[in-house]
Each structure stands twice: as C-alpha cells, then as structure tokens.
Amino acid sequence: xxxxxxxxxxxxxxxxxxxxxxxxxxxxxxxxxxxxxxxxxxxxxxxxxxxxxxxxxxxxxxxxxxxxxxxxxxxxxxxxxxxxxxxxxxxxxxxxxxxxxxxxxxxxxxxxxxxxxxxxxxxxxxxxxxxxxxxxxxxxxxxxxxxxxxxxxxxxxxxxxxxxxxxxxxxxxxxxxxxxxxxxxxxxxxxxxxxxxxxxxxxxxxxxxxxxxxxxxxxxxxxxxxxxxxxxxxxxxxxxxxxxxxxxxxxxxxxxxxxxxxxxxxxxxxxxxxxxxxxxxxxxxxxxxxxxxxxxxxxxxxxxxxxxxxxxxxxxxxxxxxxxxxxxxxxxxxxxxxxxxxxxxxxxxxxxxxxxxxxxxxxxxxxxxxxxxxxxxxxxxxxxxxxxxxxxxxxxxxxxxxxxxxxxxxxxxxxxxxxxxxxxxxxxxxxxxxxxxxxxxxxxxxxxxxxxxxxxxxxxxxxxxxxxxxxxxxxxxxxxxxxxxxxxxxxxxxxxxxxxxxxxxxxxxxxxxxxxxxxxxxxxxxxxxxxxxxxxxxxxxxxxxxxxxxxxxxxxxxxxxxxxxxxxxxxxxxxxxxxxxxxxxxxxxxxxxxxxxxxxxxxxxxxxxxxxxxxxxxxxxxxxxxxxxxxxxxxxxxxxxxxxxxxxxxxxxxxxxxxxxxxxxxxxxxxxxxxxxxxxxxxxxxxxxxxxxxxxxxxxxxxxxxxxxxxxxxxxxxxxxxxxxxxxxx
Length: 730
Hints:
By secondary structure, the chain is α/β, with parallel strands linked by helices. It folds into four domains: 19-264, NAD(P)-binding Rossmann-like Domain (Rossmann fold, 3-Layer(aba) Sandwich), CATH 3.40.50.720; 313-479, Rossmann fold (3-Layer(aba) Sandwich), CATH 3.40.50.261; 530-607, CATH 3.30.1490.20; 612-724, D-amino Acid Aminotransferase, Chain A, domain 1 (2-Layer Sandwich), CATH 3.30.470. Helix content is 38%, strand content 19%. The protein contains 25 helices and 30 strands. It has a seven-stranded mixed sheet, sandwiched between helices. A hairpin with a 3-residue loop joins β25 (612-621) and β26. The longest helix has 18 residues, at 679-696. It is flat, with a radius of gyration of 32 Å.
C-alpha cells in the first residue's frame, strides 16, 4: 500500500483554461487515475488499462479501488489522496451517483481533466438521472475540469500516445492527418477501422458522448489549430451547443481545414411544433445544412461518402478551381466516369490546343482528343509515354484537377502499373494541382495494397464512381466557399419589441388569425394590401367598393388556419353585389362546419394581380433556433419541397443567397423573357421577419406568409399566419 500523499500538495485551478487548452489537457495527460478498477473479467477498466500499456502511454497509471491493495499485477490505491503525485487525468468507470464528488475531490488535488465512461446521466429521462445530470454540470463548471463524456468510450491521441478506449481489437495509434470526433463511440471506432483499412490514420479521435463538459465545437477548434491535422471529420446525432459548434467550424475554415460531417436524427419536433405549413417543414437536417455550409462544413449522407471525402482531403492538394481533366485506359470505364461526373455537376473543359497536339504526338493519334481522355489505346505504351500524357494534362492551363482511372494492385505482379503509380506520386508532390485516382467500383485493400498505398502519400485514391464524383464536387464547392463571417446585428427601433409582445399577449388563441398576424407584420414594415374586416354583408359591400374591384373575401377565424381548405376564400369578386353574396356564401359554409368555429368576420382585401407568388416564413429549429424560410408559394412548397432556410439574424447577403438556392428564385428573375420581379421587396421582408423573431424571443413558433406576391416593383403579404409558443419561458 502506498503512503499517503503529501499534505502540502495543492490544487492547480483549471478555471482559466481556454477550450483549446482544456482539450490539450484531456489528450496529453501527465498521469491517469483509473476510477472503478475491478477484477471482473473483461471489465472496461481492465481493458482500458491494458490498452494504455499496449500502445505506449508514457505517464503513470494509478488504479483506484478502496477494497484492493493490488490489481492487474500493480499497486492499487484506495483513494486519490493516496497517490504519490497529484492526479492529472481521471478515467471514470464507476457508478454515476458517485461521480460529481469524485470530480470535486480530484480538482481539489490538482486534476485538470477527466474522461467519464460511465452512463446514467442525460441519456436517461427519469427525474433522478436528470437531477444527477444537473449536478454534474454544476460540478464541471465549478471545478473548471476538462471533461469528455459521460457515456463515451474514451479518446485517442496518436502523438502522445494515448488510448483511453476499451476497444479489444487492435488499432493503429499513430500520428495522422485526420481528427475524428464522434458522439457515438461505436460509430467512431467503426469509422476509424474503415479509414485504417484504407491506410488513412486518425491522429486524434474523441468520443464526446453526452457532452456535459467539453462539446464537439471545442474539439473542432482544437483540431483546427493542430498542425498535423488536415481534415476534421465528425459523426453527429445532435448539437448540445450549436454556438460553440459553429465557432469551431469557423476556426477550422479560417485554418483551411475542412469539417466533414455525417449527421443523423432528422428531427420530428419541428414538424409537430406548428399547424402552419412552414412549421410542418421544420427539420434539423435542413436547418443544419443551411447553417453548416455557410460556416465551412461539408455534410455527407453516409459513412462511405465520409471515407472518400476523408481520403481526398488527407492526401490531395487543395483544388483552386472547378475545371477537371481526366484520363482512363478503358473506353467503358470512361463512360461510367462521364455519367457519374455529369450527375455530380463536374465540369470537364476543352483542353488547350497545345495539350491536344502534345497528346496526339505522344500517343500516335490525330488531334481529335476529348476531355475526359480515353487512353485505352495507351494501355501498352511505355511509362514515359504514360507520364507524358499525365504531365500534359496536369500542366494544361484549362485544368485545375486531374482524375486518373485505376485501382491499387492487391498483390505482386503489376510492376508496370506500380511504376506508373510511383511516377504519378512524384509528379503530384511537385504540382500545385491535386491528382486523384478513382476506381469505378469499390475494392478491398490487402496488406500488400496497404503497404503500397503508404508509399504514395501525394495522391488520393477514391473508390466508387458516384460517391467519388460527389466527393470531388463537394471539395470544389468547399474551395470556392466564402470565408465565414458573423452577421452584424442591426439596430432595432426602441419600443417595438414591447409593442410586439403586447400584440401577442392580446391574442386569445395560440394561432393568430390573418388580421392579428398582419397587425404584427405591419409593425415590422412588411408590405400589406388594402383591406378591411367586414362583420356584415353590408360592410362587405361598402369596403369592397372603397378598395376597388376585383377583391378577395376570406374568413377570419383562429380555428381555421387554412381557410381555402374549408371554402373560406372567394377570389375575383368584381362588384358590390358579388361582395355581398360572397360574404353570405362564406359564412354559410363555415357555420356548417363541425364544431362551429369562432368567426371574427370576413376580410375584404385588394386582389393583387400579376407578379409571382412565393412563400416567406419562419420556424424554430430545435437545435439551431429561429430560421427564415423562402420558397415557392401556395401548395407548391409542400408539393415540390422548393424552399430553403437561413438562420437568424439574416443580413441582405444571406437573404440573396437564400433566394438563389430555390427554383422560386429563378422564377422571379427574367424567366422566359419576362421582366424580373423586385428581389428587394423579398429580401427586406426576410430581414424584417428576422428582426421580428429576435424580438419575439421564445414567444413565436412559426410565421407563414403564403402567398407573398412580388411584382416588378414592390410586393404584398396576401395571407399570414402566426403560431405562438404555448410553452414560452418568459
């Protein structure tokens, strides 16, 4: 049994550490205390201790168990205070209820970081687990400890070296160009194995778990400043701290390190939040895409795509344009490449005449050479001729990236091909343009393949024509991105927020009818048509005559958010008599409905003619907060799913970009020779809605302006719906 530690030992406070410094403390510990050491066969503590030794951790390891003097053949300590030195890192595999006090004790002794493998916190919904979660968060904040987890499987640092992971299967723990961050331990280890199969090493791997301490944004920011990291890849199920995530992504983008993400868990919460069409379209994956792409993130749909993207960014030079040159030694494979490239939107420009002449001479053919180049006839040419062809393409001024069709050999016997590969690798090391080999289908690596691949670090080897071309398109789009910036906050008029809240409070229903909704929108300068609410057929006649024909009559009822579905709208009312009749017809239809909805009157409105109908609105994403929506008007938004989202606050550039992402944006342009519609009317309304949502706080779930009629000059909100939040915190 070790002697008690010196009573003069004092804590080293961690409260002043930055997030990056905290991650560094987590991944480069001086020593590790293993809380929950046990002799149970195959327990996680034993397996992790074995891995730390197996992969060469250089610090001291201190098993902690109050009932043991020795464990796993080494000294076991009863408490942290018994250690011969201050604990630096805790590996916690003990009952959840004991962990807050363990962290307090460790921090008092000078610990800087902890990895909590144990579960029993935020992933459970019972009151006791939620209360324990709250307490653990409080302790983490109080102590300033750098904490990964809980409910994770540990972390890896190839450069330290460190493996606080209980994985039994052999892994490569070595420096590498990839930083892998996964909220799922199982998926994280799967991704690591998939990359190892392709000879791509993760120099850093974090399984972030429930993220009650450090979050995924902290890990991304750390990887962004790590010199060895070329690409950051993430598996996400949800964002605990969206603001920190975006901070980390912006840091990575500024460092020119792509963040490639697989995100699961398309949320249904947004769809259940509102009776508005816009609310039904809410979903975190769309919101995520709209925000993430703006901040330098590439989202892929599958793990296979993630592997190809990682392979590209780990080995290829950055691409600086969209023009691609390509060469295949098979006419059939060339056809597959062309189809996949066309589907992904890749651009194969005409080669420069000097390149065509050079290739014609080298290959002994005429000048009728295309790009992509079918060099099937060159399969038996010398290495010199092959390399002259490759060099001609990479040096072509019209080419920004070169694709070469081919696979890595799986066994000895391809000396000529391997000669090509080594020569191309040497050329790629000298060129400032990326060279990428692609195979039209997937194939497995053998030990021979992996050894050969390790000798060819300057070239990316991608597999599967469709996902390869999709990866290249994403890489080109990433290279062309605008550097992310924070949207400046606009000054909002004094007192308007209070007026908004008063209007919302005055609404008796959580669904504001059209008149009440338009009163809110009018406060923010959203353009409205001429209209008045009639409470008798005579008033309908009078108001219609004052407004001018034709007019539209619409029922006003908080119980009927979608008026046209129940016959509550009549268009093209062309006379005073027709206005009276329309009023009576609408009232008769509505009052015959089951439940007899509350009717506040019939809105008589100017019928706006001409222009294009679009939809504008807002929704609240469960992860990323208030979003602005723009898309095709009427039922087209649901039928064709033609819409896009942008996060609040929305600046004019954001609004313009959002319009350009939709077919509705094309329609309001000079479509088929028609004069363009007034984009400014749309962008100013988007910014007004953004200000409205920021002023509303959590009081509004969704807003729908459908349709918004935009004309050559100006526009108008023809119908509106606002849904309040019945669970608001204010």
